Recover the amino acids of this structure.
């Protein structure tokens, strides 16, 4: 599998991975919070 | 374990409570109330996962390195803090007894004072816990004292939050989610117990003794340990150990040091230790015969099993320690691949094991480039730092693009080396590093 961050040195790469994981967490949180709004139309 | 799998497990652990809550069958509340609960759940899940990112678990740090494990530990602690700080302020529903018709508690928050108190206590404790860790270097506090406070503080936060989550959490009324919280808390607690109770017992069963202490450069010592009553340590060249000399097996006085010996050389293990602070400044006074304990092996700075056609080792200062172990092992294995050692120091007196390194150049064919920032008159090596220009000059040979690059040294040198190598087209998977400072 191609690593999208492999062009960057380790400290930058790790921050990018951290940001990507945090973004997924935020999406999870938003999906959780918005599910009532979405279901309610 | 594969880093991608580790990330997937991490996300599964931290997002599981949100997922279980969403599918618990309870009707959703207002956007803000759900955001508040969700932020609280995320914060607690991240905090519990932090225990596994403490750098002491080989299945994690063996794959990604202790420095990387610790970096994620530090970064996610900040995320947990932000989610936790926001949690109480996002709620809009009132805190009062439930309405008789509101059986799933859609409209009100708990009014149970003990449930609120445990949450407030954890909330108040978390901020200093994280800030104290971020500012540790600026505190006038021994590392071991800080470590004890950090461990106890984290355990207290986790326990208080378990009470708060189970007593106040709307979704924790669901037995599956409650079981998940208790399970995650039990894993976190078990990780602490394994470090502070199980490991000391294992260490007591495999004691070591200081065999010799000798100076190998200015303010730098080689300490050799011999196993006492057991066969020694199974490790790979380049790995590191938590070393405790002269204290009991359960002592908090232990520091991480790379193993500079080669496993093939016998059952003694050696460390190269540079004087820096409280413990390392006393190393020269350690007497042979002093008892010692090891928590090892840890780390991923290993060339064993790598099949790149050549190996370049880039060391700065005492970062030579693990790389010397690797070179010693390659020599004992009669590894036929070409090797290069670029080794930077400030002055010539800091060059560790200089005769042995010259010998490696003569007998193993290692190409050695010494670099000195303050070279003496008549110096024939490189003058200056191991910086971007140095790497472009010495590592640009297209034949080296397939090599494995192993880097250990001061952070600025490591950053320069990695950036230069990536700029030269070396794929990141062919660059391995271990940082001695992870903050
Ligand atoms: C993976 C790894 C491998 C290392 N290998 C070597 C090596 O081969 N040779 C060498 O000379 N140094 C090595 N170090 C650095 C070494 O661990 C520190 O220099 C040493 O712990 C400092 O201890 P001190 O009591 O003398 O200094 P202190 O004054 O107590 O501490 C100075 C700094 O060292 C760090 N430190 C201190 N104690 C610990 C500890 N128990 N755990 C983690 N960090 C600590 C902290 O950042 C602290 O602020 C390595 C570090 C790591 C993380």
């Amino acid at each position: 599998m191609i690593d999208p961050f492999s062009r960057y040195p380790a400290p930058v790469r790790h921050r990018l991975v951290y940001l990507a994981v945090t973004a997924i967490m935020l999406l999870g949180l938003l999906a959780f919070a918005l599910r009532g709004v979405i279901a309610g139309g | 374990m594969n880093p991608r799998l580790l990330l997937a497990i991490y996300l599964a652990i931290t997002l599981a409570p949100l997922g279980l809550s969403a599918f618990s069958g309870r009707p959703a509340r207002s956007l803000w109330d759900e955001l508040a609960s969700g932020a609280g759940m995320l914060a607690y899940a991240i905090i519990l996962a932090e225990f596994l990112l403490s750098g002491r678990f080989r299945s994690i740090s063996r794959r990604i390195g202790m420095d990387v494990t610790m970096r994620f530990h530090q970064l996610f602690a900040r995320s947990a803090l932000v989610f936790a700080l926001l949690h109480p302020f996002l709620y809009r529903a009132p805190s009062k007894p439930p309405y008789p018709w509101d059986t799933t508690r859609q409209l009100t928050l708990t009014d149970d004072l003990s449930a609120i108190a445990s949450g407030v206590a954890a909330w108040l404790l978390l901020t200093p816990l994280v800030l104290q860790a971020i500012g540790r270097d600026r505190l006038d506090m021994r590392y071991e004292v800080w470590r004890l406070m950090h461990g106890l503080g984290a355990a207290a936060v986790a326990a208080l939050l378990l009470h708060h989550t189970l007593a106040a959490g709307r979704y924790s009324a669901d037995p599956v989610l409650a079981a998940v919280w208790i399970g995650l808390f039990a894993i976190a607690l078990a990780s602490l117990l394994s470090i502070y109770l199980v490991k000391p017992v294992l260490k007591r069963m495999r004691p070591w003794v200081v065999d010799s202490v000798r100076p190998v450069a200015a303010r730098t010592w080689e300490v050799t340990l011999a196993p006492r009553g057991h066969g020694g340590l199974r490790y790979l060249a380049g790995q590191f150990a938590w070393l405790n000399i002269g204290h009991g097996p359960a002592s908090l006085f232990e520091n991480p040091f790379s193993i500079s010996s080669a496993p093939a050389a016998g059952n003694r293990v050696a460390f190269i230790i540079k004087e820096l602070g409280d413990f390392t400044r006393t190393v020269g006074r350690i007497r042979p015969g002093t008892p010692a304990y090891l928590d090892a092996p840890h780390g991923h700075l290993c060339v064993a099993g790598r099949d790149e056609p050549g190996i370049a080792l880039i060391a700065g200062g005492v970062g030579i320690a693990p790389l010397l172990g690797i070179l010693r092992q390659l020599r004992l294995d009669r590894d036929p691949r070409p090797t290069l050692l670029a080794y930077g120091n400030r002055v010539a007196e800091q060059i560790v094991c200089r005769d042995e390194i010259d010998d490696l150049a003569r007998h193993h064919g290692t190409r050695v480039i010494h670099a000195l920032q303050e070279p003496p008159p008549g110096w024939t090596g490189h003058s200056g730092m191991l910086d971007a220009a140095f790497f472009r000059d010495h590592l640009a040979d297209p034949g080296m693009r397939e090599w494995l690059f192993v880097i250990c040294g001061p952070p600025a040198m490591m950053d320069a080396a990695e950036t230069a190598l990536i700029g030269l087209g070396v794929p990141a998977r062919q660059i391995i590093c271990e940082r001695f400072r992870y903050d």
